[in-house]
Amino acid sequence: MDVTIDAEQRAALWGDVTLDLTGIDAIYLAIRDREWEKARALRCRFEADMRLLDDIGWAEHEPGECFAITVPAEELRPVLQRLHDNASRHAHQLLGGTQAALRGVEIYADLLEHLDGEAQSDPDATSA
To answer: Which of 56, 70, 92, 107 has the most CB atoms in a 10 Å sphere around its CB?
Structure first.
């Protein structure tokens, strides 16, 4: 199942995903500290971020009005949920949040709702 997002959604997603990638050095720190499971979990997290950038583009500004996300729903959902939770936390820390933070929360909630709706209408999803 593909998800298509618009330029506004893409801008929010790109900003939050690239911000998340600033923590990629945590993989090295986990390895250095012999925290193997933590290092593996972080690798998966950052790999999912980078797969998402493969779909929406690595540059801050990409031409186009629509962007197809081909990351499978079961891999996309945890990324969107994490970004939603981060945006929610950020909005609340800002005493009500900025318009951008509040809009990010709304965008992730809409995308998660879309994924949930698609999963419920997919006959293969219910037979698993």
So the answer is: 107
Cα–Cα distances in angstroms (integers) from residue 108 to residues 81, 89, 124, in the given order? 7, 13, 25
In 3D, which of 91, 92, 95 has the Cα closest to residue 103?
91
Residue 29 near residue 15 (C-beta atoms within 8 A): no
Is the whole model's pTM more than 0.85, yes or no? Answer: no
Amino acid found at 49: D
For residue 102, what are the domain limits? 3-127
Question: DSSP assignment, residue 128?
Answer: -
The structure tokens listed for 38 are 């933590």
The tens digit of pLDDT for each residue in 89-100 reads 877 766 555 677
What pLDDT, in 10s, does the model give residues 28-37?
999 999 999 9
Token duo for residue 103: 């809009």
